[in-house]
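ENTRY TYPE: paired fold submission
RECORD: A
CONTENT: sequence, then structure tokens
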Amino acid sequence: TYTVLAQCGKELDFGQMLRFLQVGKPLHFACALVCMCLFVVLEGVSLRRINQKLGWDTGFTPNLIYSAADVYYSAITPSAAGGQPASGYYMVRDGIPLSAATSSLMLNIVCYTASLDIIGVAAMATNFPLFLRLAWPVQLLILLGIGIQFVLLVFFLLCMFKSDLVLGMSRGVIRFLGKLHLVRDPAAKEEKIHHTVEQYAQCVSLMAGSRRLFLEVLALNLGQRVVQMLITCFVCTAVPTGLNFGQVLARQAFCLTGSNSIPLPGSVGAFEYLYIGIFGLDIYPDALLPSMMTARGISYYLCFVICGVMTWLYHIRTGKR
């Protein structure tokens, strides 16, 4: 991305970006880097907490790698779909049964989805005048982000608590589409959905013994999203940009919500579009692109490179083991 921008993007001056880093407050950039690390650590703590409950605690470092693998493989696979399977792969490789690994990841994704919805609704409730100032395509992406995450959360909860209803509806839809010749091999599709719903239903037994666990995992996922937003807050307050800490946090919450409406690894393209559309209203013009690329460089590119190194070192070590 940086290479393409350097070759054909006249709007972004890399000398300007370097000056942005040079004149910025080192402590703020250091805090942004700490938040990047916390983003990975908090998911590792969340997964470890669930695995402890299941009786398969492999220690802090392996769970940190499960989190790093999630970040890394999400960044290099279509629709960011490879993160959880990669985490599950390393869990099973470390001796955790597949059923336990699946339950752990399923509960974590439910709390991840819920945390995104909480942030989106909170941003809308507390900053509605800002939302009304945005261009309609940006507003549409934000609303889609909230709506998609809400639909996913409802689907997950129905799978957990009303699995028979979901299975019945899914079978009816698949058979109807099969009669219209829009779905090939309806029986295989039914079996796949049945297996998926069963996996989410396993979370019920996991939560039944401890509702506190659900609240802990939700709090950790919410914390993970907050520290991710704080990266941009520290970057944008490292130099005079015309925005204070709270104003940046509100705008970044909208960016995070809207970018989740686009199924791309790291929401590449969508995030940048939203950042320019949201921050461009009030931030100093000469700080817009340098702050965006610096914040994005820390929160996404640097993060997934570090996670990739961590994952492959662990992969090689456990392979020798």
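RECORD: B
CONTENT: sequence, then structure tokens
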Amino acid sequence: MRWRELIQNKAFEAQFKECLFLRKHQGDYGAEHLIFAGLGSRSSEHEAWRQVGAAIYRTLVGNKIYKALFNLDHFKNLQADFFRGFIEGFGLADYRFDELKSKRRQDPEFELLITGKLLPDLQKMLHEAQIVFSAVNVARRLGDLPSNHLTPSKLALESQRLFKNTQAKVVVWDLARIKKERLGGLIAVSKGSAEEPRLIQIEYYGTKSNQPPLVLVGKGLTFDSGGISIKPSAGMEEMKFDMCGAAAVIGAVYAIVSAKLKINIIGIIGATENMPSGSATKPGDVYTARNGKTVEVNNTDAEGRLVLGECLVLASERKPQMILDVATLTGAIVVALGNTHTGYFTQSNELKTKIEKAAEASGEWVWHMPLCDYHTEDMKGTYADLNNISANKGAGSATAAAFLEQFVTENIRWAHFDIAGTAWAVGNRLNYCSAKGASGVMVRTFYELAKSVVD
């Protein structure tokens, strides 16, 4: 039966992500096999093209086809961002993490051949898509590595390896330097672990050195047991993903460096484990942060904000044009938004507009969350300047953001991204992501934000 008859008989209705694969097809286009994919009513969304690209990839690989031809001449009016989304869908779906298996899959490397008239804007988008999906996959791999293969020191080594032959410079502080620099929150969280913490700074200067940098800050908890306030055992293995904020920063900087954007950017990552032991920080302990503020630790499982606070002080000292921090910070954001949208917090309307535009351009979904003086009041301490958990119930993600805000110098544009719901296990929503693995979320949006600063 020819493909036109299949469509007439409604064997294929072109619903969103629906694929029809015809093996050993004899007929039009001179191809051995044909695949049809549906965009449904979403043909005007570049995110739809990304997901359709992934659907085609998975259908082909499922049928053991590892080479495909995409002829641009059949898409006369293909928009450049649709084309980029389509290519990203293939590249993101092609990711797998099996490097620790004794018998790895031996599938051939997938080849997507682009033919037809590749206009300059499409050529540019093809190059950019390759940069972006490669950077996202870098972040995914870091997230998927188990904590014994990615300790804080190994995360620092991975960063140095990744940027070794680039224009970026990686500076790593060990425990002695961290103590010298008075990073009290990072020290407090690390005290229960046999693994020493690391402070990782990735610096790239793509324009004049006197231009204020964009600073990205990432939470790098390579494993989070909860410390003395220990987590339930069920699902604790997922706490290897508690460094996905750090992975997002590394991936975003990697994309920016690869694209040679004319921007100055600094990535700052606080890396540690949070473990229970006789030397661990205890509930009720008080430490002093680099900016002189004292913090009472009433719950050692609210540790990410302690690490991020120190990184935000360092970020503020670099006199940036803006600071963006990203972290798997609260279960409350999962309750609010599930695993579809990343919640973000900022009191800058200008920055809010930039974030929304960047997210729209990247195809990632974000949601602006409230942050006000009441949330700040909730974080005031009894025996110290601040508590690390709220004095009241509810608004757990907003009060965490209010805590972080206390470590950002006034008048610096700042936004906090809570990716606790979107950093892993989003394959049920996004077909180009693994079912259980890291998603690499926010790499694409941060890259678009960096581009908007250049523009």
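NOTES ON RECORD B: The mean pLDDT is 95. The first strand starts at residue 19 and ends at 22.
STATUS: closed
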